[in-house]
Specification:
two-stranded antiparallel ribbon; eight-stranded parallel sheet; TIM Barrel; 10 helices; binds NADP nicotinamide-adenine-dinucleotide phosphate
C-alpha cells in the first residue's frame, strides 16, 4: 500500500479515501477508475447492482498496464445484491463478481440488511465465499447498530466495515461508536451529500481559511474522524480536487462547526427494510 492515510482493521490497511462508482456508465467507470488510480487513489468501490464491475476491472487493468499502480496496492470493494442473499445465490454472485472484475475483491459487502433469508444463512455464505478465496475480507453495508452487532456475533470472520450514508447533514455518532466497539470501521457513502455540499455557506467559509473547496473540507472532516470516504465524480478535475486533502487539517472548532450542520431530515437514501430502524440520533 501507499503512504496515504489508512485505517487498519483486523490487520488490513484500508485507504481512508476511496473512489465511488455508483451511477457511472461502464464507459465513465473505466475512464474514471483509471484516472483515479493515476491521480493516486488506492481504493475503489463498486457493486454488482451498479452494472459496471467489468468496466471497473478494465479501469484497474488500464492503470496497471500504464504503470500507474500495482494491483496489490489497490483496495477493491464490491457488494452482494439483496436478491442473492440465499447461500447458493450468494456464492454464485461472488464467483460472478470476481469473474467480471477479473480480480479477487479485497472486500465483499452485504448491500442492505434483510430479514429473509436469515442472517445465519447469509453470513454463513459470506464466510464461505471468503473461505473459498472469492474475497479477501467481508463486511456490511447499511446495517444499523443492532443488526451490525448481531451480524458480527454470527460471523466467524471479522466484518471489516459497515458502509453507510454519512455526510455533514447526518449524525452518525452511535454507529461510529458501535463500529469502534466491534473493532470494525465505517465507510461513508454519499460523502459529498451527492453534491449538496458545494453551496454550503459554512463549508465555503471554512474552506476559504485553508484555500480549499467545500468538497475538500467535507472529505477532510470525514477522514479526520477515521471514517473512510468514497466520493464519486464523472469529471477528471473533480477527482483531482477530491484527492487533494492531505495537506491541511481542520481544527477541533472547525470539525464541530461541520458536525453542527447535521439535521433530522438530512438522510438522502432511505431504502432500509421497514423491519429495521436506524440508530436514533435526535
Ligand atoms: N452502499 C450503498 O448502499 C451505497 C449507496 C450510495 C452510494 N454508495 C457508494 O458511495 C459512492 C459515493 O456516493 P454518491 O455517488 O451517492 O455521492 P457523492 O460522492 O456524495 O456525490 C457525487 C456527486 O457529487 C458531485 N461531486 C463530486 N465531487 C464534487 C465536488 N468536489 N464538489 C461538488 N460536487 C462534487 C458529482 O458530480 P460530477 O460527477 O458532475 O462531478 C456527483 O453528482 C457511490 O459512488 C458508491 O460507490 C454506496
Amino acid at each position: 500500500m501507499t503512504d496515504q492515510p489508512v485505517i487498519t482493521v483486523d490487520g488490513n490497511a484500508i485507504p481512508l479515501l476511496g473512489f465511488g462508482t455508483w451511477n457511472l456508465t461502464p464507459e465513465d467507470a473505466r475512464r474514471m477508475v483509471a484516472e483515479a488510480l493515476r491521480i493516486g487513489y488506492r481504493h475503489i468501490d463498486t457493486a454488482w447492482i451498479y452494472h459496471n464491475e467489468a468496466a471497473v476491472g478494465d479501469g484497474i487493468r488500464d492503470a496497471v498496464e500504464a504503470g500507474h499502480v500495482a494491483r496489490d496496492d489497490v483496495w477493491l470493494t464490491t457488494k452482494i445484491w439483496v436478491q442473492h442473499f440465499d447461500r447458493d445465490g450468494l456464492l454464485k454472485q461472488a464467483r460472478e463478481s470476481a469473474a467480471s472484475l477479473g480480480f479477487t475483491p479485497d472486500l465483499l459487502l452485504l448491500h442492505w440488511p434483510k430479514t429473509d433469508p436469515s442472517f445465519e444463512e447469509t453470513l454463513g455464505a459470506l464466510n464461505e465465499a471468503k473461505d473459498q478465496g472469492l474475497t479477501r475480507t467481508i463486511g456490511l453495508s447499511n446495517f444499523p447498530s443492532a443488526e451490525f452487532r448481531k451480524a458480527q456475533a454470527i460471523s466467524k470472520a471479522a466484518l471489516v466495515t459497515n458502509q453507510v450514508e454519512y455526510h455533514p447533514y447526518l449524525k452518525l455518532s452511535k454507529l461510529i461508536e458501535t463500529a469502534k466497539e466491534l473493532g470494525s470501521s465505517i465507510t461513508a457513502w454519499s460523502p459529498l451529500a451527492q453534491g449538496q455540499i458545494a453551496d454550503d455557506a459554512t463549508l465555503i467559509e471554512i474552506g476559504q481559511v485553508h484555500g480549499k473547496t467545500p468538497g475538500q473540507v467535507t472529505l477532510r472532516w470525514l477522514i479526520q474522524q477515521n471514517v473512510i470516504a468514497i466520493p464519486r465524480t464523472s469529471k477528471e478535475s473533480r477527482a483531482a480536487e477530491n484527492f487533494d486533502i492531505f495537506d491541511f487539517e481542520l481544527s477541533a472548532e472547525e470539525m464541530d462547526r461541520v458536525h453542527a450542520l447535521a439535521r433530522p431530515d438530512g438522510r438522502l437514501g432511505d431504502w432500509i427494510d421497514p423491519a429495521f430502524q436506524w440508530d436514533r440520533e435526535w
